[in-house]
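User: Here's a structure from my thesis project, written as C-alpha cells. My advisor, Dr. K., wants to see whether a designed sequence matches the one we expressed. Can you design one independently, without my sequence as a hint?
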C-alpha cells in the first residue's frame, strides 16, 4: 500500500479532502519559513504576539498556576533577605514578582516588559494590594534608548526567565553589557550551549528562539572581572516553548564593591 493510500485510510480522508489537507500543510510549512526569515532580518519581529497580547490574555498569564513553583525555585537561588533591589527583564505581568514582593517587603522589585497591557494589569494589581516595594515599567529590551529610561544606577540582582531567548543577536551584546554594568549579580535562565560559532545566537530548529553561548557572550560584553557559573535547569522548572538546553547562568561582578550581597 502506498504512503498516500495508507495516510488516507488511517485518517479517513477522501481524495479531495486529502488534497486540501496536503496544501494546508505545505502552506503552514512555507509560512513558518517566512516568519523565521522575518525573525532573522528584523530584531523587533514579534513571533508570538507578546507585544500585543490582550488584557484577557495577560490576566490569564498573571494567575497561572506555574507562579508558585517558579517562586520557590527563585528563592533557592537568591537570598532576598540580604539584597535591597531586584530587577526582572521581560516580566510580562509580574507572575514571579508578586509573591516575592509580598514575602520580602524590604527588597525593592521592578519588572519591565514591552507589552503595555501586561504592565497596565500589573500596576493595577500593585495598587489594589498596596505593595510599596513593587512597580512595573514599559521597557523594550531590544531598544537602547528604552533601556536607558530606567533611572536606577545599580541593582542587587538582575534576573531573566526565558526572555533573552527572544533577543536578536544584533542586540544581545548591548543588553548583557548593560545588565552587568547595572548589577552586582546577573542570573539568566535561558537556552545555553557551548558554541564555537554562532555565539551571539542560532535559531532553534522549528522554534523562534535563540540558542547561544552565554559564557563567551559575557566575556565579549564585559571587560571587568566576573565569577560565572552555569548549571542545568530541571525540566519541571523550565517550561517555555523553546525546547531543550535550559540552563541557569549566574554572573557575579567581582571588580567593584557590592552594596548588596547575593548568594
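Assistant: Designed independently from the structure alone:
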Amino acid at each position: 500500500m502506498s504512503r498516500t493510500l495508507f495516510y488516507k485510510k488511517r485518517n479517513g480522508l477522501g481524495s479531495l479532502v486529502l488534497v486540501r489537507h496536503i496544501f494546508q500543510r505545505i502552506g503552514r510549512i512555507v509560512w513558518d519559513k517566512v516568519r523565521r526569515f522575518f525573525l532573522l532580518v528584523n530584531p523587533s519581529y514579534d513571533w508570538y504576539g507578546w507585544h500585543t497580547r490582550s488584557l484577557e490574555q495577560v490576566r490569564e498569564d498573571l494567575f497561572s498556576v506555574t507562579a508558585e513553583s517558579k517562586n520557590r525555585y527563585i528563592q533557592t537561588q537568591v537570598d532576598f533577605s540580604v539584597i535591597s533591589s531586584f530587577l526582572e527583564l521581560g516580566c510580562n505581568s509580574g507572575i514571579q514578582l508578586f509573591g516575592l514582593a509580598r514575602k520580602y517587603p524590604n527588597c525593592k522589585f521592578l519588572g519591565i516588559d514591552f507589552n503595555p497591557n501586561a504592565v497596565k494589569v500589573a500596576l493595577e494589581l500593585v495598587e489594589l494590594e498596596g505593595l510599596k516595594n513593587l512597580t512595573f515599567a514599559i521597557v523594550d529590551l531590544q531598544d537602547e534608548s528604552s533601556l536607558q529610561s530606567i533611572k536606577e544606577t545599580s541593582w542587587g540582582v538582575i534576573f531573566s526567565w526565558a526572555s533573552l531567548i527572544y533577543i536578536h543577536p544584533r542586540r544581545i551584546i548591548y543588553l548583557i553589557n548593560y545588565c552587568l554594568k547595572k548589577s552586582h549579580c546577573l542570573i539568566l535562565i535561558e537556552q545555553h550551549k557551548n558554541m564555537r560559532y554562532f555565539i551571539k545566537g542560532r535559531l532553534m530548529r522549528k522554534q523562534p528562539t535563540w540558542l547561544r553561548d552565554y559564557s563567551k557572550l559575557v566575556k565579549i560584553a564585559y571587560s571587568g572581572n566576573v565569577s560565572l557559573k552555569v548549571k542545568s535547569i530541571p525540566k519541571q522548572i523550565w517550561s517555555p516553548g523553546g525546547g531543550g538546553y535550559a540552563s541557569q547562568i549566574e554572573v557575579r561582578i567581582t571588580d567593584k564593591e557590592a552594596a548588596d550581597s547575593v548568594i
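When you compare it with your expressed construct, this may help: The first helix runs from residue 3 to 11.
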